[in-house]
Amino acid sequence: MSKYRRTLVVSLLICWQFLAWTPARGGEFQQGLFWQIARDGRPVAYILGTIHSEDARLQRIVDAVSPYLLASGALALEIDMNQATVRAMQERMLLPAGKSLPELIGIDLYRQVLALWRQRGLAEDALPRLQPWAVLAELSMPPPVTGQYLDIRLYQAARAAAKPRHGLESVEQHLGVFDSLGIEDQRALLADLVAQADELPAALEQFHQAYLQEDLARLQELNDALLVAGDKALAHRLLLRLVDERNVGMVASMQALFGAQPCFVAVGALHLPGANGILALLQQRGYRVTRLPLP
């Protein structure tokens, strides 16, 4: 697999929170990134809300949670990042034979997408063969520099310590939401992204600032601003599939991993807050949820 193609696959593995245009929903757990989950006075898990970024400022968070990761029995991410998963993702992001991106989204929008693609210095010959949602994922992320995303750093630390690594979802579950979108919906999302391309770097920096302040409510407000700029009905449909429905499945997967040693869980921060968030769902199932301080 080429270095470019593998980088794109990793971006797909970890970028959905920038696409989960999530209206602020209030409720509990509006502040805090790191949480202990306990049952009968015994920790069964530590949950870190992540931001899918390689920003150097995030290293302090990795340093702070590393002792908990090393003391845990296993690491669970939204999806496992092993070679089999990467290969499966690679296959899923390609269009079927005989199909091309310009044909699906129209030549005018394709030219705009191609201009953004070129700005990133990406391989142009790959673009016509990609699914529209795969292009959307790549262009929604900050341009990769080191590839050392927060999730990747945790995965590498667990692998170095010979910790078992698990995915809370299969590739099918992780990408199934986009299979349910028609081409028109995918085209609309790409058109929205192109229209907001100049504003994206500033928006991503605002996400970083809110994340570093552990302000989940602010992260939701920032997503709200993206929601207003796009197709609201489409964004709300995506919300249910990308966040709420996946939260239920991921909590079930987590519970299956709770054992004698705590499990270290890392999921996108926007999966944590709200009445339908992972923390509330665990609390409803009888677990004690306690915020742990980060420096």
Walk me through what this model shows:
With 295 residues, the protein is of the alpha/beta class. It has one domain. Helix content is 53%, strand content 12%. The protein has helices at residues 3-14, 59-71, 83-92, 101-105, 107-119, 132-140, 150-160, 171-179, 183-195, 200-212, 216-229, 232-257, 278-284, and strands spanning 34-39, 42-50, 74-79, 165-169, 263-268, 288-291. A six-stranded mixed β-sheet has the order 4-3-5-2-1-6, sandwiched between helices. Helix 2 runs parallel beside helix 7 (150-160), helix 5 (107-119) crosses helix 9 and helix 10 (200-212) runs antiparallel to helix 11. The longest helix has 26 residues, at 232-257. The N and C termini lie far apart (39 Å).
The helix-strand sequence is: HEEHEHHHHHEHHHHHEHE
> Could you list the spans in which at least 5 consecutive residues all have pLDDT below 50?
1-26
| Percentage of β-strand residues | 5-15%
- Class by SSE composition: alpha/beta
Number of helices: 13
The span between the termini is 39 Å
The averaged pLDDT comes out at 85
What count of domains describes the coordinates? Answer: 1
Shape: globular
How much is the radius of gyration in Å? Answer: 19 Å
Strand order of the largest sheet: 4-3-5-2-1-6
Q: Compute the number of strand runs.
A: 6
What can be said about this structure in brief?
With 295 residues, the chain is an alpha/beta fold. It has helices spanning 3-14, 59-71, 83-92, 101-105, 107-119, 132-140, 150-160, 171-179, 183-195, 200-212, 216-229, 232-257, 278-284, and strands at 34-39, 42-50, 74-79, 165-169, 263-268, 288-291.
